[in-house]
Write a structure and sequence with these properties.
The chain is mainly alpha-helical. The chain has helices at residues 3-12, 15-19, 22-31, 34-43, 47-53, 63-99, 136-148, 163-167; strands spanning 106-108, 130-133, 151-153, 173-174, 178-180.
Length: 182
């Protein structure tokens, strides 16, 4: 098995799996240059899981301690971003409560798993908010609120529809990608 594969499987494994594969992990860590390892974890969106997975490991010849120090700045940036995105979610909830109190979006995927599936928010990378509402009118209210709060709809590659048209095209109403512009 390749070193990269050993690292990825270690990140994704449960605690029992990890305990049985510590030797393979140490071997993989010795064979991967640190920058290559970090690039692999970033591309795979597993840096947070890796950080949590190695927390309880004893250092062997400084390998794990050095990795902890190397990834700490990246994790700090992610923590700051997570704090920001959580604040945005709370802000949008308050704004929606004022503008359209009957519209109650459900938060999907990433951030909704913090504290449940993932004990530590750093384990689950989040880059946006995924919101689902139950009706066309709720979708319009959500778009109105997002726009009023300084968000702009992003467009889709090879898709001529506006963000609203995309959102209203299906049977379920999931908010399309928006980015903050304020």
């Amino acid at each position: 098995m390749s070193a990269s594969r050993d690292v990825l499987l270690f990140c994704l494994g449960n605690p029992a799996y990890r305990r049985g594969r510590e030797t393979s992990l140490y071997s993989a860590l010795r064979s991967l240059p640190p920058q290559e390892l970090l690039d692999l974890l970033d591309r795979s969106h597993l840096l947070g899981l890796f950080a949590v997975a190695i927390e309880g490991l004893p250092s062997q010849s400084g390998d794990v301690a050095m990795l902890r120090e190397t990834i700490a700045p990246r994790l700090m940036v992610r923590t700051i971003f997570n704090t920001h995105i959580l604040a945005e979610l709370l802000h949008l909830g308050t704004a929606l409560g004022v503008r359209a109190p009957e519209t109650r979006p459900v938060v999907l995927k990433g951030i909704s798993h913090w504290g449940t599936v993932y004990d530590d928010a750093i384990e689950r990378r989040v880059r946006d908010l995924d919101l689902l509402v139950g009706s066309e009118e709720d979708a319009r209210q959500l778009c109105d609120t997002l726009e009023a709060e300084g968000y702009e709809g992003l467009f889709f590659v090879d898709d001529e529809r506006t963000v609203r048209e995309h959102m209203l095209a299906g049977d379920s109403y999931s908010a399309p990608p928006y980015r903050i512009r304020r």
